Amino acid sequence: MSKWWRGLRTVVQVRTLNEPPCSHSYHTIQAIPRECSGSRISRRDRDQGRIPAVVFSQNLLDKDPYNRSLARKQLLTTERKQIKAVLKSVELPFFYSTTFPLQIRAGSGSSILLESGRVLPIKIHRDEETGKILNLVFVWADDGTELKVDVPIVFKGLEHCPGLKKGGSLNKIRASLRYLCPAEHIPQKIEVDVRKLDIGDTVLMQDVEVHPFLKLLSKNETMPICKIVATNFENAQCKSV
């Protein structure tokens, strides 16, 4: 019977309550409004080196129509060169757990600022054949706003893991955890240190400690994140030798 790992306070790397919110300095995304939508207009924007985008409040996606809000919905275009540079600096999947400053200006190169704030990317639409970015979707991420975010899991300490040294393998059951996060406390990633795990040890959702303001959006917190599994019968016997 597999042993569940205990004492994960020393295994899962988290930010303590006294540490400041996760802050990353990236270029401010520059955008200009677009008044109309449609394939012809979007194609023209792309031909001009721009990517159509939309930003809105996340509760617009709520299944309950009474909780939806159309406030601050904006149709925009962004600069393709800048978006490609940002994606080179903040690779997927961390792009979707990183907030960025956004400035909406009256026109390309204009000094007139129409609106600004922080945004969280939630979707990149690409051409299925070429992989070219077709459009972007953002939600507003102002301080105090609560957002549902899929935070990527990063496993570290693999070179020191006893179970892996014995010939076991790391079964990565989940790639991310979904949290309800205040926008100012969105972690870019969750690091799970496996350096103390032996064959049969399992890390569960409930074992991960995060900022107290984060709420795990799972009905079953005992679901596993990862497990060190034996690769053959001999490895399964290692813990009893």
Automatic annotation (TrEMBL):
<dbReference type="InterPro" id="IPR011035">
    <property type="entry name" value="Ribosomal_bL25/Gln-tRNA_synth"/>
</dbReference>
<dbReference type="GO" id="GO:0008097">
    <property type="term" value="F:5S rRNA binding"/>
</dbReference>
<dbReference type="GO" id="GO:0003735">
    <property type="term" value="F:structural constituent of ribosome"/>
</dbReference>
<dbReference type="InterPro" id="IPR020057">
    <property type="entry name" value="Ribosomal_bL25_b-dom"/>
</dbReference>
<dbReference type="Pfam" id="PF14693">
    <property type="entry name" value="Ribosomal_TL5_C"/>
</dbReference>
<dbReference type="InterPro" id="IPR029751">
    <property type="entry name" value="Ribosomal_L25_dom"/>
</dbReference>
<keyword id="KW-0687">Ribonucleoprotein</keyword>
<dbReference type="GO" id="GO:0022625">
    <property type="term" value="C:cytosolic large ribosomal subunit"/>
</dbReference>
<protein>
    <recommendedName>
        <fullName>Large ribosomal subunit protein bL25 beta domain-containing protein</fullName>
    </recommendedName>
</protein>
<keyword id="KW-0689">Ribosomal protein</keyword>
<dbReference type="InterPro" id="IPR037121">
    <property type="entry name" value="Ribosomal_bL25_C"/>
</dbReference>
<feature type="domain" description="Large ribosomal subunit protein bL25 beta">
    <location>
        <begin position="147"/>
        <end position="231"/>
    </location>
</feature>
<dbReference type="GO" id="GO:0006412">
    <property type="term" value="P:translation"/>
</dbReference>
<dbReference type="InterPro" id="IPR020056">
    <property type="entry name" value="Rbsml_bL25/Gln-tRNA_synth_N"/>
</dbReference>
<dbReference type="InterPro" id="IPR020930">
    <property type="entry name" value="Ribosomal_uL5_bac-type"/>
</dbReference>
